[in-house]
Fold each of these.
Amino acid sequence: MKPTPYKNDMLMAQKQQELLERQEAERAAFFQKMKDKQQKMLAAYEAGVGNEMERKQREDEDRARKYQMLAEEKDA
């Protein structure tokens, strides 16, 4: 028995809908992966910047203590 044009249209519409749903799922997964990657890179950058700022803060404090000690030795 040969499919009628109506059944053929329904089958084609169903296949088209499945294709669109699959494409939308792939698109959503792609963008989620991109967002996750960007978030990971941002976290790594922020951690690096935080570590660098902490290191500079320690260096500044050490420099200030050394300067203070030299100033006290000159006054003594």
Amino acid sequence: MARPAPATAGLRSLATVAAPLARFRPPFEFGDFFAPEDTLLCALATAHTLARHADAHDAPPARLVELTCGSAVVALGPLDRWPALRAWGADVDADAVSRARRNARVLGHAERARFAHLGLFDARLPRWLRRRAPDVVACNPPYVPEPPDAPNALVAGAGPDGARHPKRALAACARAGVPRLALSWCSLGDPVGVARAAARRGYVLDALWTAALADGEYTGGAHAYLRTLPTAFLDESAATRHALAPDGAARFGYLLLAGSFVRAADVHSPDARERARAGVRLVARLVRRFVRDGLPALATLAGREAPAGAPPLHAYVVDRWDELSLRAAAHGPVSGSLPSISAS
């Protein structure tokens, strides 16, 4: 099958960098809340962060932790590239922990990966992190705002502005002295507030990944609530909705975000604080320009209009065809045959 229409001009499809998902084919198991788009962005940020650690220390990374690990895609993926790397994962869901352990066995990494039943808000988390002394922590938590009167298992207590989990991950990592962090969040969940929280916790944004996509079942259902939030950035323009969802089903577009962060104390430069502020400015400009200008804002900020001193921005688009392609990359080709349907 071929793409029925050209990808959005000026932006690469996220599906063009989906190779990290190809390793995770059945019998690897995904959980109920797995989404290939944000998982892939977090995996890209994590790969970059591990490589940056290796460059800075002239040695391969030794320890990786994934918080809110789910199926452990992000924790297990780098083990193929880095033979000396060990991985740990933690999740508040006991079923997810069991699934991650099975997945480690499926991939042949059971001896190099360990998983714990531990949530972001567990008081033991900072101590648990310190004991493992990770070179890099990765976290792809729930980050969609949760209407106070309509709790939803999909966002699992993300809070009314959606930033509760990313900010908690930053706090735990700072307390544990984690030197590098790959963190996911989104434009609906106080994106600028999360970037500011990272800077306040002593982290500098080293690189940023973003992907524009249309609302899904839950985000679309929360549309009315999201429109009331000054910290939610979404684009309802017809041009963006048509580009992301030619089927006409989109209510709005929004941005997934994944950042590679380094501890400011490890930035060997007198302008570490200014670099931290530049990262916050990049996130703020990105989400505000997206609301104002739509998809072209991503291409211009990643290219000729990149803010001075800002970290690199890697921008992608996910349209309906890309959504299908990413799921095929993760789940593998369809086997067997479809049943025939006869007219009655």
